[in-house]
Amino acid sequence: MTPRPRIIAVDGPAASGKGTLARRLARHFGFGYLDTGLLYRAVGLRVLRAGKDLGDEAAAIAAAGAVTAAELADPELRSGPTGNAASAVAKIPGVRQALFDLQRRFAAHPTDDRGRPLLGAVIDGRDIGTVICPDAPVKLFVNASLETRAKRRHKELLERGEAIIYARVLEDIERRDEQDRSRSVAPMAKAPDAFEIDTTGLDADGAFAAALAFIGSRLD
Ligand SMILES: Nc1ncnc2c1ncn2[C@@H]1O[C@H](COP(=O)(O)OP(=O)(O)OP(=O)(O)O)[C@@H](O)[C@H]1O
Ligand SMILES: Nc1ccn([C@@H]2O[C@H](COP(=O)(O)O)[C@@H](O)[C@H]2O)c(=O)n1
């Protein structure tokens, strides 16, 4: 019998460092990695590019049904406006439903970027430990203060060439946090059995060490 894939679920708010940590854990364990935020960003970007309103549920659901793995490499997905668009479409239940199977399939049959099967997966997002993989043996909730997250994201966007002021980034993140926390379907939440890592005073190495110490033998 094929063993069940070993799953590390990583949740947390925007720019908390969960993607940085999740990618490093995936490399360390030789697991597949899925950034589920990119799926919502791809839906938001499709809606924007089609010239539709982000509140147009039918357009957003159709976009979610059409998302392909190939488009997740589009650098525009990482832009500030796309992040805001992602949060707007992520509250539409039909969008979440349309992306659910894809995420569950990856968790059940993780692969590398060439489609070769792997023994485990690291999946990051907002509802991985609570909705997508509630039975994951390892759940992490990565957090950091609002100001720390806004500073990190501001630096990242400036490096991407976006002309944006710090106050605007802070405002966007605060609004996105609130929207993600308060939506009626699959709100961002720390699963009761998740281990919280506050990266406010931790660099990437410190966050990785804290995660490894928690994981211990939980994946054996
Ligand atoms: N522990 C850390 N200390 C300092 N900077 C960090 C740390 N972790 C990540 N960063 C930096 O902060 C920025 C955001 O990190 P990352 O993309 O991992 O966050 P995220 O939670 O995945 O964000 P999002 O959900 O919006 O994609 C990046 O520029 C990254 O290099
Ligand atoms: N599992 C998830 C992942 C993401 N979202 C929504 O997408 C937005 C963008 O996510 P990033 O991780 O790339 O910042 C985010 O603000 C959420 O609205 C989600 O709902 N569920």
TrEMBL record:
<keyword id="KW-0067">ATP-binding</keyword>
<dbReference type="InterPro" id="IPR027417">
    <property type="entry name" value="P-loop_NTPase"/>
</dbReference>
<dbReference type="GO" id="GO:0036431">
    <property type="term" value="F:dCMP kinase activity"/>
</dbReference>
<keyword id="KW-0808">Transferase</keyword>
<comment type="similarity">
    <text>Belongs to the cytidylate kinase family. Type 1 subfamily.</text>
</comment>
<feature type="binding site">
    <location>
        <begin position="12"/>
        <end position="20"/>
    </location>
    <ligand>
        <name>ATP</name>
    </ligand>
</feature>
<dbReference type="GO" id="GO:0036430">
    <property type="term" value="F:CMP kinase activity"/>
</dbReference>
<dbReference type="InterPro" id="IPR003136">
    <property type="entry name" value="Cytidylate_kin"/>
</dbReference>
<dbReference type="InterPro" id="IPR011994">
    <property type="entry name" value="Cytidylate_kinase_dom"/>
</dbReference>
<keyword id="KW-0963">Cytoplasm</keyword>
<dbReference type="GO" id="GO:0006220">
    <property type="term" value="P:pyrimidine nucleotide metabolic process"/>
</dbReference>
<dbReference type="GO" id="GO:0005524">
    <property type="term" value="F:ATP binding"/>
</dbReference>
<feature type="domain" description="Cytidylate kinase">
    <location>
        <begin position="8"/>
        <end position="205"/>
    </location>
</feature>
<keyword id="KW-0547">Nucleotide-binding</keyword>
<keyword id="KW-0418">Kinase</keyword>
<protein>
    <recommendedName>
        <fullName>Cytidylate kinase</fullName>
        <ecNumber>2.7.4.25</ecNumber>
    </recommendedName>
</protein>
<dbReference type="Pfam" id="PF02224">
    <property type="entry name" value="Cytidylate_kin"/>
</dbReference>
<dbReference type="GO" id="GO:0005737">
    <property type="term" value="C:cytoplasm"/>
</dbReference>
